[in-house]
Structures are given as structure tokens and as C-alpha cells.
Specification:
Elements (H helix, E strand, L loop, with lengths): L2 H10 L1 H13 L4 H7 L7 H9 L15 E7 L2 E9 L1 E2 L4 E2 L5 E7 L5 E4 L2 H7 L2 E7 L2 E6 L2 E10 L5 E7 L2 E15 L4 E11 L6 E6 L2
Parallel strand pairs: 1-11
Antiparallel strand pairs: 1-2, 2-5, 3-4, 5-6, 7-8, 8-9, 9-10, 10-11, 11-12, 12-13
Amino acid sequence: MQKKHYQRTKMNNTPIKLTFLFLFINFTLPLSAAVNLNSSNKITGADSAAHKKHIKSPVFPVPPADHNRLFYIQRTANINTLIYDLNIDKKTGKPDTETPVHAYWIRYNEKGQKEELNYIQRKFAYGLITKPLGDDRYDIRFVSYKKFPLTLMKGADGKYHIFASITQKQTMLNYVFIKIEGGSFWLPNVIYVELKGIDPVTGKEITERFKP
């Protein structure tokens, strides 16, 4: 993912960007939260400043290790975490041709239970579009942002990883974080999106932040 690419998207594809951000941030909120955000009971002015001082930043949990884990996503909206795991066909020992990646929630904000994406989340926000490339490689795209290319394939270690461009390097993606401060329910103020991955050559962690 290159910064130039996102700058170009920002200028020419503003509706796409806003749709992506809206879906990525707001479809995770329960209905009650959406009602509260749009209610007239708002904190403003000096009360707002005082209120912010008492708000503690959430402590984001690290999901338990799993040998099929590819990457996960967290946002400041809440600590609920989106998990993307490799989905292996037990008969072939290879990625399932129809659904090579399994996306689901860990609802830390509730009882820490696993939960499948609902229809809207799967079809319009966090679901994936997959296209076989041959040799057990897959082109992976978010349904809400098809211009972000990911590739599912084996690395030099013989294991499957999701590869993405971070700081203009092909990197094994393992974490995405979206920081939000203020804004509205429909148009949140995204401070930055952070990507973290491992350089397959050096084994070092690579991080890139950008403002969409």
C-alpha cells in the first residue's frame, strides 16, 4: 500500500473512501450505540473538554495465537476485534477454493465470544472478494475497498500469509489499526490507519501510518 496510491484515491474517489470508512468503523457498533451517537443528549463546550479528560483509552487485547491466523483489525470505536484466519480444506490440505479466508469477530466488548459476520458486514464492510491466481495463490480484496490489493500465498517458511505493500515493500500483513477522534456517526474523523507486518527477508516488523 503506497502513500501515493491513497493520495490519488482521496482526490478522485472521495465517495469510495467515505463509504469504506463509514462501513469499516460504524457497522461494528450495536444499534444502541448508534442511537446514542445521534441523540440530542450531547456533551458540548467546556463540558466536552472536561469529559474527555476522564475518558481512558481502551486497552486493546491481543487475540490468542492460532496457527491459521493471517491478520486482525482493531479500531478505537471499541475493543471488538475482526479476525482473518486461513480456511484450510481438510481433504486437500490447501486453502478452500471458495472461501480461503475465514473472517469473524471476537467480541471482547461483550463476553469475548467468537461471532460470525452478519449479512451486512459480510457483503458491504468486512467481507472479502477472492480470486484464484493459480499455484495456491489468491487475490484478496475487501468488499468495501477493492483498491487495496492483498495476496494470499505461501512464504519462504512454507506457511500461508497475507502479503501487502507496506512502505513500498511486500510484507506479511498481521495487523491493521484505525484511530478515530471525534467527527460524526456518519463521518468520523479518522486520524490515521496503521498497518503492521513482517519483512519476509529480514524478519523485522514494518509499520506504516497514513491518513486516508
